[in-house]
Amino acid sequence: MAGWDDLMSFVRVRYEIMRQREHELWFDLPTTGERTQIVVVRLVTGEDGRPWAQITSPVGRIGQLDLERTLALAAEPVSGGVVSENGLVLFRHAIPLGDTALDGFDRSFRLVVDVADRLELELTGADEH
Fold first, then answer.
1. Which residues have a Cβ under 8 Å from the Cβ of 116 and sit 6 or more positions away?
2. Structural domain spans, the chain
3. Cα(32)–Cα(17) distance, rounded to whole angstroms?
4. E strands present in the chain
5. 4-124: what fold?
6. Does the pTM of the predicted model rise above 0.90?
7. Which terminus of the chain is more solvent-facing, meaning fewer CB atoms within 10 Å of its CB: N or C?
8. In the predicted model, is pLDDT for residue 114 greater than 90?
9. How high does pLDDT run on average in the chain?
10. Residue 120's closest CA among 108, 129, 110?
11. Coil, helix or strand for 24?
12. What distance in Å separates the CA atoms of residue 37 and residue 113, rounded to the nearest whole number?
């Protein structure tokens, strides 16, 4: 069972951290070809009052996306969803800390990175994020 400190140690040996703030880690990860994708992992408190790791990656600017198509494409992955925050559309997923083994995080982390990058490519044709 993993806590936030365990998760930070786990990702430090597997990924290069681009930026770190208290309870927040930023990454710029390679995806396919020359593409990269920004992803943020935050420690958040869930509605259940327990700690969760929230994994978020930008797809594009809200005013530049066909939102109906965005929602349809975001419905395809088995987990996660799209949200709007600060003018950006983000693909987001969360896993409970304490209940999840660290290897379960890695699978969710890669899912968010890969889906967000695919959505960005399909919806914008760009690699801005």
1. 37, 39, 57, 58, 59, 90, 91, 129
2. 4-124
3. 19
4. 17-21, 24-30, 36-45, 51-61, 81-85, 88-96
5. Yope Regulator; Chain: A, (3.30.1460)
6. yes
7. N
8. yes
9. 92
10. 129
11. strand
12. 6
